[in-house]
Amino acid sequence: MFLIDVTLAHPLPMRRLDLTFEDGLHAVVEMDSIVKNYSGIFAALLDDEFFRLAKVDPELGTVVWPNGADVCPDVLYSAASGKPIIERH
């Protein structure tokens, strides 16, 4: 686990997010590599206008959409950094 929050998020075309994390990492993440099946709450993200409503919820430390969809910040950080998520026990 990284436990590093997303601090800035700018939605880009083709379901990509330009992200900055609290440790300074900055990267563009392709949501298609994270969300394999846009169903349920994630189905709305297929609409470009809705996708552009993405914003950072500072309390959750991650990207959210108005319908309640969000992505775990560890998943986003892993995609942005190329580092695997490692569970610490």
Give structural notes.
By secondary structure, the protein is α+β, with helices and mostly antiparallel strands. It has one domain: NE0471-like N-terminal domain (NE0471 N-terminal domain-like, 2-Layer Sandwich). The chain is 15% helix and 27% strand. The chain has two helices and five strands; from the N terminus they run βββαββα. It has helices at 48-51, 73-81, and strands at 6-12, 16-21, 26-30, 55-57, 62-64. It has a three-stranded antiparallel sheet with strand order 1-2-3, with helices on one face. It has a two-stranded antiparallel sheet with strand order 4-5. Strand 1 and strand 2 (16-21) form a beta hairpin. The termini are close together.
Can you give me a brief rundown of this structure?
Helix content is 15%, strand content 27%.
Indicate how many domains the architecture comprises: 1
Described by the principal axes of the CA atoms, the overall outline is globular
Low-confidence stretches: none
Element pattern in H and E: EEEHEEH
> Oligomeric state of the chains?
single chain
CATH class category label: Alpha Beta
Mean pLDDT, rounded to whole units?
A: 95
Q: Name the CATH superfamily classification.
A: NE0471-like N-terminal domain
| Percent in helix | 10-25%
> Describe the biggest sheet?
3 strands, antiparallel
